[in-house]
Amino acid sequence: MGRHIHFEEEVTSTQKIAHNLASEGAEEGTIVVSEQQSSGRGRLSRVWYSPKHTGIWMSLILRPQIPLSQTPQLTLLAAVAIVQAIEEVTTLKPDIKWPNDILVNGKKLVGILTELQAEADRVHSVIIGMGINVNHDQDHFPTDLQDIATSIAIEAGEKADRAELIQQILLKFEVLYNLYLSKGFKPIKLLWESYAISLNKTVVARTLHGSLTGKAIGINEDGVLLLETESGNIEKIYSADIEVKS
Ligand code: BTN
């Protein structure tokens, strides 16, 4: 991972550049990193706040030979790699909220955006975008993010070395990805579950089609969240914002 690095001072979105590179045939493990994004993209068409010099804004190109339905597994794998890297470089012990939020003290530290390029029903490439708030001060965040976002510097009380963190993320990712390719999703699922805060809790899942409340009883083999509703039905949640209730 990271043998080919495209470093840019400013881009619209590292995702956009990574998509272009992937279309042009960039090798698996190629990364795009930028100091700043003018149109950072979040999930569900949101904007991702990406100020200069204080975060990690990075996209990683993968070319796994897996069916499209299994690509959510890679988001969960990326979340585990980032948590392990943060634990290695800082004193923090982050939690993962399904599918892809990494939180410390209930506030969001990291967002992951997985996007696909497909050929028929096969994966052409997967672009994993990682946004990590590293050295922002609290008053650095726009007002609408003040109460819900945080950074490593705020939580750990000291700044972290972004280059070291990137290096650790790529190292951890590579180990987990090789494990995944050789042994499948099971070992990754176990690791992910050990960091997950939403499991066995009552959660509200807000999807594009409305809200659903239930107990998050686990994830299935594709990385999809399983929600047991009051009526006892098990619903599969493919994409949603999750609020953990109790
Ligand atoms: C989320 O909404 O939680 C996902 C946020 C993902 C942000 C990262 S920053 C690097 C990459 N480039 C983007 O435009 N988005 C992702």
TrEMBL record:
E.C. code: 6.3.4.15
Leader sequence residues: none
Coiled-coil boundaries: none
Binding site for biotin: Q37, R41, G42, R43, K108
Domain BPL/LPL catalytic: from-to ranges: 1-181
The keyword NADP belongs to this UniProt entry's keyword annotation: no
Keywords attached to this entry: ATP-binding, Biotin, DNA-binding, Ligase, Nucleotide-binding, Repressor, Transcription, Transcription regulation
GO molecular function: biotin--[biotin carboxyl-carrier protein] ligase activity
Catalysed reactions listed for this entry: biotin + L-lysyl-[protein] + ATP = N(6)-biotinyl-L-lysyl-[protein] + AMP + diphosphate + H(+)
Function: Acts both as a biotin--[acetyl-CoA-carboxylase] ligase and a repressor.
Family: Belongs to the biotin--protein ligase family.
Protein name, per record: Bifunctional ligase/repressor BirA
